Amino acid sequence: MSKKALYLLGIAITIILGTFLYLKFCCNCSMKTPTVAVEKKTVAANDTTMVRFILNGSGIDFRTGDNLKFLKNSAVLLTPVSDSIGIGIENLKTFLASNSKQKVIITGYAISDETNNSTFENLGLARANEVKNYFVSKGLTASQFDTKGEIIKNWKMISDTLIGPVEYNFPALDTTTVVNNEWNTLKEKINSDPLILHFNTNKASDNLNAVEKQKVTDILKYLKNVKDATVLIVGHSDNVGNRDANVILGQKRAEFSKDYLVKNGIDAERITTESEGPDEPIGENSTAEGKANNRRTVITIK
């Protein structure tokens, strides 16, 4: 083969090889799907150390992201407080006014490395009382709050400020106690100012005035709700005539009063009658007025 032919063959081989290598490497690169870098976003979890202002109990549920604040080592509430907390306090005021038996336990917290410069046994209790006093200054009733204080290892802080180191608990009402207190109060009212019916000499009258009728209503209400309660009617007389006759007269007056109560819906079996005759005067038997006061029956709850 001539040199010229060899030269031409070398050129051809070079062209073929170059084309092959180009197609294999360069074109494949350009045909690849471009890789797009995907940025992985990290979603921050909720800040579980943030202490919210929460009033949550039976009949009230108020929450706001703001809160009361105290400087470290201090029991003095930082003021002014936010408008959202002010709204919460007004809600609490309305709730407690409508639920006079409800108590709120305010628990104040302090960190173990804080210095207690208050007169209270611990800084947490001092903070609880500071919040109570602030609530009272806004028109809430002091008797509806109890306070506690606890020392803990840490609390949410921003710089040297503690965020909301106070919690509010609404203990469930003991309905049995509330009901019993209601009826005990009514019984005390009835017996401290009992229904007294007065009588003319040897006569009886059931013409009651408005106050006396209300007392009968109170007795009926009490007996209706306290099933084991009974009524005691004690008859009295002045000292005119024979004592034994006056004891009998006092008993008749007690029986007359019993009949009146039975006519007004009280079960006769729940009424006990007695007579003291002339033995327990409340007026002077030497005067007409005193004698009139002594001729009576006194009706109470046993």
Structure description:
It is a single chain. This protein has helices spanning 3-31, 83-98, 123-137, 175-192, 210-225, 243-263, 288-294; strands at residues 53-57, 60-64, 69-71, 104-111, 145-152, 157-158, 161-163, 166-169, 195-198, 231-236, 271-277, 296-301. The termini are far apart. With 302 residues, the chain is of the alpha+beta class. A four-stranded mixed beta sheet has the order 9-12-10-11. It has a three-stranded antiparallel beta sheet with strand order 3-7-6, with no helix packed on it. Strands 5-4-8 form a three-stranded mixed beta sheet. It is built from seven helices and twelve strands. It is elongated, with a radius of gyration of 45 Å. Residues 28-49 have low confidence and may be disordered. Helix 4 runs antiparallel to helix 5. A hairpin with a 2-residue loop joins strand 6 (157-158) and strand 7 (161-163).
